[in-house]
């Protein structure tokens, strides 16, 4: 293990995330954006905002992203040599306000006018995945620049050491989380949040227990990212009668699997 790899592992273990890691070169990024634009034309932007779920099973170019050498290099440093792809999803925050609407918002008397715009509430990924015995690592690969104005990821460093926190139903409208949950405000130290801006082609990664969120897109620029979840092969699914989970899209992306905890794996 190289010195740089050891440093990545040390920072990740301490902070629970790494950001602005290079992945796609200029040609790879251009091809990925072109291919994604074809999906937008085929399915409509309303669909591609959040519903392109596990399409690595259908599109070779998406599967290739999940196994990109730059991603695998980091995965091996953090999770070890044997890693399973658990799930993938494209998430797009499209510009929700027209330029004239942005101007009117400034003079809007209703302070919650922007609260109906799509955002992601404070949460922990592990709350949704039903995984035990090992960590879940989330990759956020940027196809567009992801900046403060268009709703970049925010994290609270070190919170992955706090274990699982309670989640409740979100009160504010517009939460993009599929089950509309959030961590109660009094349990979130939002003043300690760190923004994770990315240039297109870069990625951030974070631990499944790290508290994170993102604000609405208040710009005129799309924010498209590819979210990929990975687990070491020794992790295993647990049953929750209130929310049954099935993992039909899992694939072995590197190493070997001696545990066979997930179905539908491929070398």
Write a brief caption for the model.
This protein is of the alpha+beta class and about 270 residues long. It is about 25% helix and about 25% strand. The strands form four sheets. The protein has a six-stranded antiparallel sheet with strand order 1-10-5-12-2-14. A four-stranded antiparallel sheet has the order 3-11-6-9, with no helix packed on it.
Describe this structure as you would to a colleague.
The protein is an alpha+beta fold. The protein contains seven helices and 14 strands. The chain has helices at 3-15, 26-43, 45-48, 60-66, 69-79, 99-106, 126-129; strands at residues 17-22, 83-93, 120-123, 131-132, 137-142, 153-155, 168-169, 181-182, 194-195, 202-207, 212-214, 223-232, 236-237, 251-254. The strands form four sheets. Strands 1-10-5-12-2-14 form a six-stranded antiparallel sheet. A four-stranded antiparallel sheet has the order 3-11-6-9, with no helix packed on it. The longest helix is centred in the N-terminal third of the chain and has 18 residues, at 26-43. The model is unreliable at 104-114 (pLDDT under 50).
Write a concise keyword list for the protein shown above.
267 residues, alpha+beta, six-stranded antiparallel beta sheet, four-stranded antiparallel beta sheet, 24% strand
